[in-house]
Design a protein that fits this description.
This protein is mainly α and about 200 residues long. It is about 60% helix and about 0% strand. It has ten helices and no strands. Helix 3 crosses helix 7, helix 3 packs antiparallel against helix 8 and helix 6 crosses helix 7. It is globular. The protein starts with a helix and ends with a helix.
């Protein structure tokens, strides 16, 4: 079963810290916040009726087939320019700079660190989810994408990664807040949900 722990295990924290010249403990701490934020942003896109999620679902399938996770992630193979496009796709057109500015001071670390991490993490997160999606649709390999309306297979996978918090798709005004609050233990982290909810709506 897909889960956050398994996803975290795919991320080469030491290699990423070395690549961006940052402290490994700080990088690890930021990753613990940013990965659920990326998954939560993806879940919100899939469950939202106001957003056409078909492009994101195609990107997930494409990343899953990219081979990025095969034999362990090589950080040098991560396309950061593509990662920035993925971040913008997840968060209402806001690029890594805008998302980093919004998230700075929420426990994910400083804006500069977040800005460097997001384009690296986004392809890894989507590749992991894409592989889970392909694994779950072996009977119908020609259609790895989920259905937009209800989330379908992709929605189920995201729900399982987020511990069921994303299941049921959107009761309140800002389901992302409750998704991330649930994943990250509530408390001040609901602020992250509110910030990301604003980013998804195209608001800075």
């Amino acid at each position: 079963m897909a889960g956050l722990d398994e996803l975290f295990a795919q991320i080469p924290v030491a290699d990423i810290a070395s690549k961006i010249g940052a402290d490994q403990a700080e990088v690890n701490n930021a990753i613990q916040t940013l990965v659920p934020a990326l998954v939560g942003g993806l879940a919100e896109n899939v469950h939202s009726n106001q957003i056409d999620s078909s492009k994101i679902e195609s990107a997930v399938a494409e990343q899953g087939a990219s081979g990025l996770l095969d034999g362990g992630v090589n950080v040098d193979q991560v396309d950061e320019k593509q990662g920035d496009h993925l971040v913008a796709s997840l968060f209402g057109g806001n690029d890594s700079n805008a998302v980093a500015s919004a998230l700075a001071g929420t426990g994910a670390g400083g804006g500069d660190l977040i800005k460097k991490l997001l384009p690296i993490l986004a392809p890894i997160v989507l590749a992991y989810i894409g592989k889970q999606l392909t694994k779950g649709s072996d009977s119908a390999p020609a259609q790895p994408q989920a259905q937009s309306a209800g989330g379908g297979g992709l929605g189920d996978i995201l729900g399982s990664i987020l511990g069921g918090a994303a299941g049921g798709g959107g009761g309140g005004n800002n389901p992302l807040g409750s998704i991330l609050g649930s994943v990250m233990g509530g408390g001040g982290n609901n602020a992250i949900g509110e910030i990301l909810g604003g980013l998804l709506s195209g608001k800075k």
